[in-house]
Design a protein that fits this description.
The protein is α+β, with helices and mostly antiparallel strands and 156 residues long. It has 4 helices and 8 strands, in the order ββββαββαββαα.
Length: 156
């Protein structure tokens, strides 16, 4: 019998610009360790840490601010498997299970990628029609699921 897959608990932030709801623009950032790989801010949930607390911590650690308004969250976990090239370094996890939050940057929030341990080298805001042109192939289905949920609920 094959071993049951383990998934690393994780939070992910679909960050909208401060112009939301008048204008829908998604924050995406390019990883500094993988050229051309763009993604939403995300990160692991520490032991005994609540997802909301992990979300705010990860935003501070990755984009230098937690000055956001939480608009909504997906009700369940969304799972994905790591590609083969990544799976070895992420053992014992086969992938991640993520809790997705939709957040809006507060108007005076300042993004600063030069955090203590920078993960991103640059960022941009993109419209809904551009978003999936930037996202890595193995994360597209996960992002599509989260975005579809937020659209279905009338947030996007």
């Amino acid at each position: 019998m094959p071993a049951k897959k383990r998934y690393r608990p994780n939070v992910a932030a679909v960050v909208l610009s401060g112009d939301y709801p008048e204008k829908i623009e998604f924050f995406i950032a390019e990883r500094n360790d993988l050229e051309g790989v763009w993604q939403f801010p995300q990160g692991g949930i520490d032991k005994n840490e609540k997802p909301k607390k992990a979300l705010l911590r990860e935003l501070r650690e990755e984009i230098g601010t937690d000055h956001v308004e939480i608009i909504a969250k997906c009700p369940g976990w969304i799972r994905y498997d790591f590609p083969e090239a990544i799976s070895a370094k992420m053992a014992p996890y086969a992938g991640q299970k993520q809790r997705y939050y939709l957040v809006r940057l507060k108007r005076k929030a300042l993004i600063d990628l030069q955090t203590e341990h920078p993960e991103f080298c640059r960022y941009r805001f993109v419209g809904p029609d551009e978003l999936f042109g930037f996202i890595s192939h193995f994360k597209k289905p996960v992002y599509e699921e989260a975005i579809a949920y937020f659209k279905e609920k009338g947030y996007l």
